[in-house]
Design goal:
The structure is a single chain. This protein is an alpha/beta fold. It has an eight-stranded parallel β-barrel, surrounded by four helices. Strand 7, helix 7 and strand 8 form a beta-alpha-beta unit. The two termini are 16 Å apart. The model has no long low-confidence stretch (mean pLDDT 90).
């Protein structure tokens, strides 16, 4: 799992790169990057769109985007470039030919990818296109979902021609609107997640950021990302101090909630967290004062707190959530090589004190950081050892091996699920014992053992799928835990070959389950 500061980033200027005169543009971009250089971040998201003034006889004028990309590289930031399918940059906004626009934007993204060939950029899908309306040329998203997916996948194929580039698919809007959920589901069914190396959405929240752990629509969307083996990126998120679609917040709430949401997404294993926004294109969301109208060019409260807080976590990686008596209390342990461990803590409930391992913490809605020389101890999970059955008399095999192993597996999987919920606040499935009656003759043996192994492997694979949603629970090299597969047994007689194969199946299950147990023990030691 990467350090939290390796995942952090900000948006700046978006499609507004093409507005105003050159002097004003450069002055504002210079200042934005000067301020970004004071943040412990690794990414900047710079968008573009089709603008009439961009079009030249040779193709497109990328000089302004070039200027911003060069600034990012100077201060060591990695660049993400999404594209907007909007009328903002068109001279005639009221009489747009939709089919011609599809052609124009295909030319735009083709030129864009060719222009930055070999420069190691990351591109992102069309911004919030599945939300339709303004973000899909004032068209209905559901009615045009085939076009949206087609454009997304065309963009991804272009990026795939550059070995140094990568593509973030999805770019789904916030899930507070039910229609956005429907169009996202349709887009996924049509193949939007079949391309790219990462998938993104914009987890704006109405209210407490802790809802990211329980909101069924977000859980479902992230599960679909995991089903396609795509890490999760939040390429926009935040809270505004002006009246907006997700509510209005005080400056203190804006700061507290932004920090908490960032920490929660890191806990969930998000690949990138790109806050909205660095510049003044949307002043209520910005990390800086409204410097377009003032000479006072400094961070506002959310920007200042973000800078201070994550600078303290520079190079630190999430280790685990420390168990407490309340799910509303958050104690997150962070570690870094050759440094003292740190504990980040806050509560989503009323202010109160708690004592953990003899240390008292005053919890409020504002996240705090403390240094600790040793992480609070946790109970380790015991590994499982199943009966192989090699030395068991066949007449007693089902009662002494299969039934015992099946019950042992059920208890162990439920123990893993409980640990995932209590220690990491990860909802995991629970399982009931395998209760199918034991076979009484050879005619039932094949059907019974097939059903037994299908049930148990399905349960193990359910837990593996949950693990694969969280990057810190993946394998040491960052790869996903592989699902297990048990071959079916043939024939009715209990032969020596079947005896060996059954024993191998139990060994396969032992390894798979212990992989999960060992990972939990590793991140909670």
């Amino acid at each position: 799992m990467a350090a939290i500061t390796d995942k952090l980033g900000v948006n700046t200027w978006g499609m507004y790169f093409n507005g105003g005169d050159d002097e004003t543009f450069k002055d504002n971009v210079d200042y934005d990057f000067e301020m970004m250089n004071q943040l412990p971040i690794n990414w900047v998201r710079l968008g573009t769109t089709y603008v009439d003034s961009l079009v030249t006889a040779e193709g497109f004028d990328w000089s302004r985007l070039d200027y911003a990309v060069a600034k990012a590289k100077i201060i060591g930031l990695k660049v993400i470039i999404p594209v907007w399918f909007v009328t903002d940059g068109l001279t005639n906004k009221l009489n747009v030919d939709y089919q011609q626009a599809l052609t124009d934007w295909r030319k735009l993204i083709t030129s864009l990818v060719h222009h930055y060939q070999g420069q190691g950029l990351t591109y992102e899908a069309f911004d919030e296109a599945t939300g339709g309306g303004h973000y899909w040329l004032n068209q209905d998203a559901q009615a045009n979902i085939t076009d949206i997916v087609s454009m997304n996948n065309y963009f991804a194929r272009l990026v795939a021609t550059d070995d140094t580039a990568s593509y973030i698919t999805g770019d789904f809007p916030w899930l507070g609107d039910p229609s956005y959920i429907d169009t996202a589901t349709t887009a996924i069914k049509q193949g939007m997640l079949n391309v790219g190396q990462t998938a993104s959405y914009h987890p704006y929240r109405r209210g407490l950021p802790e809802q990211v752990l329980t909101n069924k629509d977000e859980l479902n969307l992230r599960q679909q990302f995991a089903d396609h083996n795509l890490p999760v990126a939040a390429t926009e998120y935040g809270y505004s101090v002006t009246d907006n679609f997700n509510g209005t917040y005080t400056a203190q709430q804006q700061s507290d909630y932004t920090l908490r949401q960032t920490l929660l997404m890191d806990m969930l294993g998000f690949d990138k967290m790109i806050a909205f926004t660095m510049d003044n294109s949307d002043k209520g969301w910005a990390f800086q004062h409204n410097y377009y109208e003032s000479s006072e060019r400094i961070f506002n409260q959310v920007g200042s707190d973000y800078q201070r807080f994550f600078t303290e976590l520079l190079g630190y990686t999430f280790n685990r959530r420390v168990a407490t008596d309340s799910q509303d209390d958050y104690l997150l342990a962070y570690t870094a090589p050759n440094k003292s461990a740190k504990l980040v803590y806050w509560t989503a409930a009323a202010n109160h004190a708690i004592t953990v391992s003899g240390i008292t913490y005053q919890l409020t809605g504002t996240p705090e950081i403390t240094t600790m020389e040793q992480l609070p101890s946790q109970h380790q999970l015991a590994t499982i050892q199943l009966i192989s059955g090699i030395d068991v008399d066949w007449s007693h095999y089902w009662q002494q091996v299969c039934q015992v192993n099946a019950n042992n597996i059920t208890a162990t999987l439920n123990m893993i699920s409980s640990a995932m919920l209590n220690r990491f606040d990860i909802p995991a499935p629970t399982f009931t014992p395998y209760t199918r009656p034991l076979p009484i003759d050879d005619r039932q043996i094949y059907v019974w053992q097939q059903a037994m192994f299908m049930t148990i492997t399905g349960q193990i694979n359910q837990l593996i799928a949950v693990f694969n949603r969280y990057n810190w629970l993946t394998q040491a090299d960052g790869s996903y835990w592989p699902s297990i597969h048990i071959d079916g047994l043939t024939g009715l007689a209990l032969s020596a070959v079947q005896k060996q194969q059954l024993s191998q199946n139990w060994a396969t299950m032992t390894v798979a389950i212990n992989n999960l147990i060992n990972k939990i023990n590793q991140v909670t030691q």
